Amino acid sequence: MSRHGGRPRVNLVVASPTGLCFGVRRAIGQLEDSLTRYGTVYSLGSPIHNPQEVDRLVALGLKLVESASRVPKGEVAFVRAHGVARSEFDELRRRAGVVVDGTCPFVSTAQERAESLSKDGYQVVVLGDSNHPEVKGILGYIEGDSMVVSSEDDIDSSARHERLGILSQTTQRDTTLASVVSKLVLLASEIKVYNTICRATIERQESIRRLAKAVDGIVVIGGKNSANTKKLVEIAESLGVSTLWIEHSDELDWGWTKGKASIGVAAGGSTPDWLIKDLTGKIQRL
Ligand code: SF4
């Protein structure tokens, strides 16, 4: 801890890369352009897993609806980066006057892989959270048999399978995919694996691993409903570094910062730049 003006100074290290990923940045840009052009835009579900950013977009004219059938006829509909099932997309095309497709290209790839595996007769295994909209969307592209597993513990070791096609929700941990594959390879006659974890996710996971080795504590900033932020928190905790998960800088616990000479900051792939800046500014003023 260095001293400045008689006070101990905290060394701040920001993970790199961190924060908004390519897909969410692209989707938010599309949404902002559409709001400027059309005034009101209906998004299927929350466009970004960050409550503060959603509030900002709602103030610009965004309306949230739960399903395609809730989009008023002829209005502008927005598909978020997580994507939707094909049936939902088709319904949107029938109802909306304009459909702005913000599906991240990496999610589209996972949907296409799932579809091709099921068409080729594989039982499709999706590593992911069955309640997550991205996984629900991917499942909507599978015609045959499928299952969702969240870890190797969900796999029944006594079951035997013929042909398994494995892919992942884009934000899963790479190590979890590896352990699921190594368990399933022993249970099936044939497996085909697509690593559909996106590079942005892997890079953010690697950056927080590096950060954990370099600091006394890590503040992870991101929505409590953000899967990729949760994964970052899990990784930091698993490496034994003191970890604080907050959604915005007002939640920073000053008691937690005490005695820490260096503090790291990492942000989920759905955390906007302005929230990260707020937080780093506060820590720098410590
Ligand atoms: S985490 Fe990856 S797959 Fe998901 S929106 Fe971002 S870039 Fe796309």
List keywords for this structure.
3 domains; 10 helices; Cobalt-precorrin-4 Transmethylase, domain 1; 23% strand; alpha/beta; Rossmann fold; 286 residues; four-stranded parallel sheet; 14 strands; disordered N terminus; flat; binds iron/sulfur cluster
Span between N and C termini? 12 Å
CATH structural fold name of the largest domain: Cobalt-precorrin-4 Transmethylase, domain 1
Mass-distribution shape: flat
Helical percent range?
A: 25-40%
Series of H and E elements: EEEHEHEEHEHEHEEHEHEHEHEH
Annotation, overall tally of beta strands: 14
Can you identify the CATH superfamily of the largest domain? 4-hydroxy-3-methylbut-2-enyl diphosphate reductase, catalytic domain
* Poorly predicted parts: 1-6
Classify the beta-strand content into a percent band: 15-25%
Task: Give the tally of structural domains.
Answer: 3
Largest sheet: 4 strands, parallel
Q: What's the CATH first level of the largest domain?
A: Alpha Beta
Number of helices: 10
How does the helix and strand content classify structurally? alpha/beta
Overall residue-averaged pLDDT value: 94
Q: What is the radius of gyration computed over CA atoms, rounded to a whole number of angstroms? A: 21 Å
The molecules bound to the chains, other than polymers, are: iron/sulfur cluster
Structure summarized in a few sentences:
With 286 residues, the chain is α/β, with parallel strands linked by helices. It contains ten helices and 14 strands. It has three domains: 2-20 and 200-284, 4-hydroxy-3-methylbut-2-enyl diphosphate reductase, catalytic domain (Cobalt-precorrin-4 Transmethylase, domain 1, 3-Layer(aba) Sandwich), CATH 3.40.1010.20; 22-103, 3-Layer(aba) Sandwich (Rossmann fold); 106-197, 3-Layer(aba) Sandwich (Cobalt-precorrin-4 Transmethylase, domain 1).
